[in-house]
Amino acid sequence: MPTVDLTPPYSEHFIRDFGGATVALAIVLTAAAISLERRLVIIVLIAYLAFSVPHTAFHVQHLDHATPAQAAALTAGLLAGVLLPVALLIVAVRLAAVPDSEHDEEPQHA
């Protein structure tokens, strides 16, 4: 991956720990996407943002050795990884605020 050259030295222990945590997060993201249970979706989006916001901040502050095209692509991708979950979180929270009876109502036919 081209961005690996832009980060600090490699640490096998760190990479294995990070990889395991990333797989764990992927599992709960997948569970939330399949179940669409509102509380789970909200919790997992917050958990994902707890990862993606500092990750984005780190990379945006370490673009010194990137070409302008690399910096733009990396920044755009990372920002998308923050903005999409924020948008989904807003939708999920708003839906959670609506009483269940409004979700379950069937249209009345005259």
Question: How would you describe this protein?
Answer:
The model has no long low-confidence stretch (mean pLDDT 87). The protein is mainly alpha-helical and 110 residues long. It has four helices and no strands. The protein has a domain of 61 residues.
SSE string, helices as H and strands as E: HHHH
Quick one: overall form? flat
The DSSP helix count reads 4
Largest sheet: none
Number of separate strands:
0
Task: Based on the model shown, name its key terms.
110 residues; flat; 4 helices; mainly alpha
How do you describe this structure in short?
The chain is an all-alpha fold.
Give the arrangement of secondary structure elements.
Blueprint: H1 12-35, H2 38-61, H3 68-97, H4 100-104
Helix pairs in contact: 1-2, 2-3
